[in-house]
């Protein structure tokens, strides 16, 4: 019996040291990442829910290390004792680590709770207009670029996801100007552009562009998915395709938290140009813009997402992100996000 107690104590000691090292490595990573939500997760009562996991681990270990003949009476007795010791040892270690973590991170936990309460208050009272973020100087002017390739008599088409804001503000427009908004209400857009010559249309039920072959002189796609073959089909010979997209690094501070495996490789001006060259188009020029947005309040960040991507304006749903932003604002007086966009001009070869 004394041997079993010594074995149990040794097992607990080894497990505790392993868990302690793992906890300190994790704590260091979370501190660098300023993950406030991780500290909040430490503020909980003890609850052991790893019985099944430990039974499986102990079963494998016992099969490998048991000196007894398998399925004998002594084998079963020691097997049951081994399982019990494993579960008890793990439960004790989990409790000790929880106690240690609360003491080790006492200040961080209290700060995280205060931060969460402040964020919840902001979420409940947020309304109205907020200051715009500070934006780095754009590296190119998409409106000026479009005008370089456009003639008054041209047929111009926009494919966008901004409810036609860019198209509405672009002047002067050729008489034959079309707007395609795949996700917007067509009737609402028709009312919005009632006092203009803009022709509102949409994709066909098959997802094709609503134009005859070789109908468009200049086709501009802004931040929307597009079918390369369809663009090639509707462009006139020597017509221009101007595509503006968000790159891989755009808003990476958010993406890395919620979609770490969203995209492999890099999506930038060179990658985009390569896909267009692959269908026989000639690349005229390409522009890359790596910039920043600085927010000085959660209200400003919320307003930005409400305008650009409404789902991301849900503070409760994306609490981890907004807590990180709030901590940065309190510590550094601003929260900075990376922007990455690019523009490629391609020409259909006649």
Automatic annotation (TrEMBL):
Q: Does the keyword Transmembrane helix apply?
A: yes
Q: Which UniProt keywords apply?
A: Membrane, Transmembrane, Transmembrane helix
**Is Lipoprotein among the key words of this record?**
no
Q: Which InterPro entries does its entry note?
A: 23S_rRNA_MeTrnsfrase_RlmA, SAM-dependent_MTases_sf
Q: What stretches pass through the bilayer?
A: 6-26, 47-65, 77-100
Span of the signal peptide: none
Name of the protein in its database record: Methyltransferase family protein
- Organism equals Longibaculum muris
